[in-house]
Structures are given as C-alpha cells and as structure tokens.
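To the wet lab folks,

You asked to see what we're planning to order before we commit. Fair enough. Below is the target structure as tokens, and below that is the sequence we designed to fit it. If anything looks off to you, flag it before the synthesis order goes out.
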C-alpha cells in the first residue's frame, strides 16, 4: 500500500509518529521535509537507532512515511489518495500497535505476531488495526447476553482449515493482550458463525465487507453490528 503521489498533500498533511519517542512530523510540511526531519530526529537518538534498528537511509525512511500515510488514508476512507496493491508491512503494524499499547507484549510475542501476519490481516483487515479496548468491551457485553451466543467448544462449529486459522488468530490475540472481561462467557455467533472473543476487536469496515444482506437478516435485532452500521 502506498500513496499515489508524494507531491499532493494527503488529508491532514503528511503525518508520522515515532512511537518510541512520541515524535510527530511537523504539520503541513512537504513530504521531503518530513523525511529529513524524521532522519534528523533519529540521528539525535543514536542509542534508539541501534536498539530499534531504525533506518537513516532517505529512501527507506521515505517508504515508511509513505506507507504510514497510505494506511491512515485507507482507514479514513480517502481511497483516492492511495494505490493499494498490497497490505501494509508487518513492521509498520507492529510499530503502530506498540505506540498505542507499549506494554502489550514481550519481544518474543511480537515476533510471533509478525510470523502470523497473514492470519492477522484475515482477522482485522488490511489495516491490521484492532478497535479500542472500550469499544471491544462494549461489543462483547452485547454478545454475552445475545441468544445467538453459542457456548461450548467453538471448534465444533468449524472444519479443519478454519480451526487452524482461528487458532492462529487466538494466539495473536493472546500475544497482543486483546482481552475483554466477557471472554470466558463468549462462544460462537450462531448467526454469522464468528468466534466471539475475536469479533469484538474487528473494525466495522472489515466486518461489513464480509457481511451480506442475508447474513444481516440472521443477526439478532440488538446486534452491535446492526446498531453501529446505522451510526
């Protein structure tokens, strides 16, 4: 995924956050200036360059900033500004997630997440961004009381390949500590056939992309998917 042009300002300008330091790109500067300022910032933190393997190469940094803004535009629906021919890199996703939740997981766990990046995209969509803890908690609370919450061994609902994919997704979920207080009471939605400890973390856009009209009719009237899609 990349920007169609580095000369035309993306909505909000060219942005970038360095998660480990909280550095933000200067507002409304050209793409070239943002790249040079990020390199300057990194050079000012040589110990972090070594620790996090930050690149100081202009072209490599430019690609990081390009992809960051392309993902941002995709998530905001500004599709005219991006050329989406591949999902964002695992490295970009991991840096964004660590910025949101620095103590999310140990280094070994993050490596396992990177190894299962295909399962991650299949679960969360091409942006690979889970929703907020608050939203996931609210969604899970709705699922707990829903009559469509099929409890028990979730594997009985799926065939072999699907079971293996969901197991990978559950492992990633554990590594990233994406948990709600209702997980122990959640099974499989008997309307959409989704594993309900995973579903609450999925962005609505990704859910709707895989939810046809027939499936919507099977959802319980109080399902959070229906209520959120009307907002």
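Sequence we intend to order:
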């Amino acid at each position: 995924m990349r920007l169609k042009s580095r000369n035309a300002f993306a909505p909000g300008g060219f942005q970038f956050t360095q998660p480990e330091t909280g550095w933000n790109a200067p507002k409304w500067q050209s793409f070239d200036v943002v790249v040079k300022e990020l390199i300057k910032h990194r050079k000012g933190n040589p110990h972090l360059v070594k620790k996090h393997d930050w690149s100081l190469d202009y072209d490599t940094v430019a690609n990081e900033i390009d992809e960051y803004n392309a993902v941002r535009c995709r998530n905001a629906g500004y599709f005219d500004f991006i050329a989406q021919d591949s999902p964002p890199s695992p490295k970009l996703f991991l840096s964004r997630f660590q910025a949101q939740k620095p103590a999310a997981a140990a280094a070994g766990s993050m490596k396992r997440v990177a190894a299962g990046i295909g399962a991650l995209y299949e679960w969360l969509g091409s942006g690979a961004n889970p929703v907020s803890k608050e939203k996931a908690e609210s969604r899970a609370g709705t699922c707990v009381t829903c009559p469509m919450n099929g409890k028990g061994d979730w594997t009985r609902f799926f065939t072999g390949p699907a079971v293996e994919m969901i197991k990978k997704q559950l492992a990633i979920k554990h590594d990233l500590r994406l948990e709600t207080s209702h997980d122990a009471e959640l099974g499989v939605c008997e309307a959409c056939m989704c594993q309900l400890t995973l579903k609450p973390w999925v962005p609505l856009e990704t859910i709707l992309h895989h939810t046809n009209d027939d499936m919507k009719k099977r959802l319980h009237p109080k399902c959070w998917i229906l209520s959120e899609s009307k907002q």
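Structural context that might help your review: The radius of gyration is 20 Å. Strands lie at 2-3, 17-18, 23-24, 82-83, 149-150, 188-189.

Thanks,
Computational group
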